[in-house]
Design a protein that fits this description.
Elements lengths: L5 E3 L5 E3 L1 H11 L4 E6 L11 H14 L6 E7 L3 H5 L7 E5 L6 H18 L5 E5 L5 H12 L3 E6 L8 E2 L2 E2 L1 H4 L5 E4 H5 L6 E2 L12
Organism: Brassica napus
Protein name: NYN domain-containing protein
InterPro entries: Marf1, NYN
Length: 209
Amino acid sequence: MLCPFCVIGRFGIIIFRSDCALSNLLIIADAPTAVFWDTNCCAVPADLHFIDVLHNIKRCLHESSYNGIVKYMVYDSGSPSLIDENPPVENMVITRFPEGGDPFEKFKKIFVDIMEWSIDRPVPANILYISGETNPHMTGLINKLGMDCYNTLLCVRDSLAAFPTNGRLPLVTRDFHFVRSVWSWCELSHGRPPFFNRFSDKLREGRCS
């Protein structure tokens, strides 16, 4: 099933229907957003605290017109003080893994949590995936959710300068066909706008190196 806001263009390329873009934005503005954050791939910056980053993520979402409830799913395996020194946050679930453990176990947990959340939360809904690592399984899942009309957002570890572009599109979007916005971790953690928005006319020059 193809998202009704999309059509098949030339050569089988999936594109967003411009006449539906505004309607889609209005629908998802008040929808809930789930944030899946791997703190080891995208660590808390040295100049910020854990709570600051959570607030900045929410600020970025609100400034991008995502005004619904935000739920944080945090996955950590090496920073016990990161959690213990901060007060509890509403709508946050922290899953801890042994330091030096099998990275696949964490990936499997994130993958299953995204699947279960999407089953429990029918569209409209937004999903922000924060990780410096991707693989064909996660790419396929994010794309499948996009085809099912979930609004998918992405945060990558590196800045825009690390991504070659094809015209106005960073090549990271070649794999994530439906992702609406892409932040670098430096930008998102500090509350700055995404370097890519599918409905913007051009790439924004990032401030992070």
